[in-house]
Design goal:
Its main location: membrane. Belongs to the GSP J family. Keywords: Cell inner membrane, Cell membrane, Membrane, Methylation, Transmembrane, Transmembrane helix. It is a single-pass membrane protein. Helix content is about 35%, strand content about 30%. It starts with 8 loop residues before the first helix and ends with a helix. The protein has one domain. With about 210 residues, the protein is α+β, with helices and mostly antiparallel strands. A hairpin with a 2-residue loop joins strand 1 and strand 2. It contains three helices and twelve strands. The chain has a five-stranded antiparallel β-sheet with strand order 3-4-5-6-8, with helices on one face. Strands 10-9-11-12 form a four-stranded antiparallel β-sheet, with helices on one face. Strands 2-1-7 form a three-stranded mixed β-sheet, with no helix packed on it.
Length: about 210
C-alpha cells in the first residue's frame, strides 16, 4: 500500500489558530476604518452647520442699520445687548412682487442653555404691536456655551452702555463698531468677530428724509 500524505491534527489546529488571528486582526482594521469614516462624516456635517451659521450672522451684521424699533409704543435702540438678550435692526429685504413688504426687519439671537441651541428670530417689521410672532429657526445645536459682547472699540457686555442718554434719538440710533461671539460646540471653542460699520446708511436716510 502506498503512503497517503495528509495534515496531522496539530497542523490543522495551527492553521485554524492562524486563520482566527488573521480574522480578528482584519475585523479590527475594518471596525477602525468604519469608525473613522463615521467620525469624518459627523465632522463634515458639524463643519457645514458652523459655516452656515457663520454666513447667516455675517449677512445679518453686514445689513445692520442704525434704525430704532417701535414695539407697542416702546422705542428700542438700533441694537440692544442687555442681560444676554441681543437684537438689532437690519435692512436689505427685497419685495420683487410688490407686496408691500417692509425693507427693514428686526433680528434677535437667542441662546437656550437647557436645549443647547442657538436660535435666530426674525420680526418682519420694525414697528410691532408686542404680540407679533417672529420666524424662528435653529442656527446651531450642541452649543455648550455662548456669549456676545460688543466692540466700540473697547469690549462691552451691554449696549447701549449705562452712560448713554436713552432719550436722545441720535444716541439710541448708534451702532457699536463690531460684535464678538464666543461659543463652544461639541467641546470645541470658537470666536467670531463681525463688523458693524453701516453708518453711511444713516447719512443717506438723513439726506433723503
Amino acid at each position: 500500500m502506498k503512503n497517503q500524505a495528509g495534515f496531522t491534527l496539530v497542523e490543522l489546529l495551527v492553521a485554524i489558530a492562524i486563520f482566527a488571528v488573521l480574522s480578528a486582526l482584519g475585523w479590527k482594521v475594518f471596525d477602525y476604518v468604519s469608525k473613522v469614516k463615521e467620525r469624518n462624516a459627523t465632522h463634515e456635517v458639524r463643519l457645514s452647520q458652523l459655516q452656515d451659521a457663520h454666513q447667516q450672522i455675517l449677512r445679518d451684521t453686514v445689513q445692520a442699520v442704525p434704525l430704532t424699533a417701535n414695539i407697542n409704543g416702546d422705542i428700542q435702540p438700533a441694537l440692544v445687548l442687555q442681560n444676554g438678550r441681543f437684537n438689532f435692526s437690519k435692512t436689505g429685504v427685497t419685495d420683487p412682487l410688490n407686496q408691500g413688504i417692509a425693507p427693514d426687519e428686526r433680528v434677535e439671537y437667542q441662546y437656550k442653555a437647557d436645549e443647547k441651541k442657538l436660535y435666530r428670530l426674525k420680526f418682519k417689521n420694525l414697528n410691532q404691536t408686542g404680540h407679533d410672532q417672529p420666524d424662528s429657526s435653529v442656527l446651531l445645536d450642541n452649543v455648550e456655551q455662548f456669549k456676545i459682547t460688543v466692540l466700540n472699540p473697547n469690549e462691552l457686555e451691554n449696549w447701549p452702555d449705562a452712560a448713554a442718554d436713552l432719550n436722545n434719538e441720535k444716541t439710541i440710533q448708534l451702532l457699536p463698531r463690531g460684535i464678538r461671539m464666543q461659543l463652544t460646540v461639541d467641546g470645541t471653542n470658537y470666536e467670531w468677530l463681525f463688523s458693524l460699520l453701516n453708518t453711511d446708511f444713516l447719512l443717506d436716510k438723513n439726506k433723503n428724509g
